[in-house]
Specification:
The protein is α+β, with helices and mostly antiparallel strands and 131 residues long. 15% of the residues lie in helices and 50% in strands.
């Protein structure tokens, strides 16, 4: 009798475990760097430590933006590093983890926008995109 009860419990645990491991990942297909400062920014680079992936823009003019699209990449909250220098040769580096949007849809593609400030702060937003 005990054996009949154990099998469904083990099966339920296995199925539940599989569902947790297959959590849909956020699909990012573009990055935009927005320069919110009065100085041009140089060598603006976003890198993912876990995969060694990176995107960059050589120059982002003052109060302007630079963006790039690419085949979608899954993102599950890995740590990102953004770095740049301004025209005064001051270097900035910041680590960040971008949270999923509250209205996350697993079938949507997203653009990551990074606002770079004069003081070296970074703000991130994720918005779904239609291609």
């Amino acid at each position: 009798m005990m054996m009949k009860i154990m099998i469904p419990v083990i099966l339920l645990t296995s199925v539940t475990g599989c569902q947790l491991m297959n959590t849909p990942r956020l699909q990012v297909s573009a990055v935009e760097f927005k320069n919110q400062s009065a100085n041009d920014l140089h060598q603006v680079t976003l890198s993912v430590a876990k995969t060694h992936g990176r995107v960059s823009c050589s120059v982002v003019d003052a109060y302007n933006s630079c963006g790039t699209g690419f085949p979608s990449k899954g993102y599950s909250g890995e740590e990102l590093t953004i770095s740049w220098t301004n025209q005064l040769n001051r270097a900035f580096t910041q680590q960040l983890i971008v949270p999923k949007p509250t209205d996350f849809e697993s079938t949507s593609l997203y653009k990551l926008t990074l606002l770079l400030t004069e003081s070296g702060q970074v703000e991130s937003t994720l918005n779904s995109v239609d291609y």
